Amino acid sequence: MYDKLKSLTADISIYGLAELLNRMMQVLFLPIIFIYIKPHDFGVLDFFLTAKNLLSIGLGWGIITAIQRYAYKDIEAKFTEVVSVSIWYILIIDIVIGLLILIGLYVFLNENNIVYFDAVVVTVSISVSFALRSVALGVLRLKRKPKKFLIVTVSNVVFYLLLTFLFIKFLDLTYMAFLYGGLIAIMLSTLIGILFIREWITLNLNLNLARRILGFGVSVLSTSMAFQFINSSNRFFLKINNSFSDIAMLGMANRLSVFVGGLLIAPFGLAWLPFVNENFSRNDFPEIFRKVYIYVTYVGLLLTLTISLFASNILDLANDIEYVNSAIYVPIFSLVFVFQGFYYLFSTGIYLQKGRKNYYTIALVSSIFNIVMYILLLNVLNVMIVSLITLGTYVLIFLMAYYFGQKMIQVSVFNTEVVSCFLTFIVLMVVNLNYLPAMWAIHEIVFKILSVVVFVGLLFIIPSMRKDVSLIIAKIG
């Protein structure tokens, strides 16, 4: 069992590096933006990048998860059929939809906005390329090829940075440099991904299989779109009775909480389903699942505690002191990522049962709950309330995934280790928020470091975790 968990940890580490590079790309672009891009042009760029993010999710059709389900060990079809159907379906359907979008926008855009039509064309093209690349990434995940996965991801980052700088420096482009650079970079990285999986691509199409893959993919897509809606709706409702400064506080807290999402939850989500495919038939899979649940909880809360305690120190580095006010919301959005990780875990039961109706139910119920809470509290909405609504929605998503998937998983949510981790986390957060370090004449930074050390100490205090650590140390020795 420990060898299996070791392989999962290794995959998460490599996927984590790829995800971290993706997250860091926006930071690496900041010097270019500060030097070459005026605020108006940056606003245009941000608009089209936001459109790209939404289109990429929709045009992906949830195929990356459907491949994991239908292609594993030829359960219902030959592996090459699944891969080929996914590629040709994405390529043909998305090109048709992309052209319809472009034609529709060209017809309805007025003369003042037609100047941005080239940006629209590039944005749609980038989105289609992202969707096509998702097939290659899905196959590489299924085949447990994290290094090749990393190559595809890193190539996009490197090409994107280099080409954008060259276009701005030598062609005197502004926001279009980012869009052109992004298009060429994603096309090149997509080509690399397709080359990695070329042995499984044929011209043969199984239309019945295509319908099954699409049906399952769309059900998974529903939850992805729901997540995107939930993550965006808080800003929309907050703006109704509040200022852009409040939205800035929300946005900054989200950016810092990516410390949890980027280092743990996103790479875990990428590595988890291929791991499940290989191990769910094992007799000890429930115990493996329980261990993974414990350590996702432990690492997630450790990262949440760390970024939450030091958020104010990080924000002190900003020129505008107002940003420090967002530190209080960092633990809330960090916990959002933790509960998203729990969803990935317990939706395993839905995934194994191919319970597409359950995916639709989760997406619909969570979205309705989210909207109703905002409407009921509309007159008193502030940053704290919308933050708590977002967290509450993700807790609901996790509980529904647990309810629908429990028949297959049969692992208790409230085991001793998980409860101990949460209680320790809450106590340490409360102690720090009540400024007890000052009362005890201990330097604030020292007390925060001690708090993190105490949480790390759980590994040696909780009996089952201490046993795991001892076995790992013995293997290393």
Q: Segments where pLDDT lies below 50 for 5+ residues?
A: none
Radius of gyration: 23 Å
Instruction: Count every helix, treating DSSP H or I runs of 4 or more residues as helices.
Output: 19
Task: Summarize the amount of helix as a percent range.
Answer: over 70%
Indicate the structural class.
Answer: mainly alpha
Shape: globular
Distance between the termini: 19 Å
Number of DSSP E strands: 0
Order of H and E elements: HHHHHHHHHHHHHHHHHHH
| Biggest β-sheet description | none
Instruction: Look at the structure and give the mean pLDDT.
Output: 78
Strand fraction band? under 5%
Structural account:
By secondary structure, this protein is mainly α. Helix content is 83%, strand content 0%. It is globular, with a radius of gyration of 23 Å.
Topology (elements, then pairings):
Layout: H1 2-36, H2 39-60, H3 63-70, H4 79-108, H5 117-142, H6 146-171, H7 175-196, H8 207-241, H9 244-279, H10 285-315, H11 330-346, H12 348-353, H13 356-376, H14 383-409, H15 416-433, H16 436-439, H17 444-456, H18 458-461, H19 463-476
Helix pairs in contact: 1-6, 1-9, 2-5, 2-7, 2-8, 3-5, 3-8, 4-5, 4-8, 5-7, 6-7, 8-13, 8-14, 9-10, 9-11, 10-11, 10-15, 10-17, 11-14, 13-14, 15-17
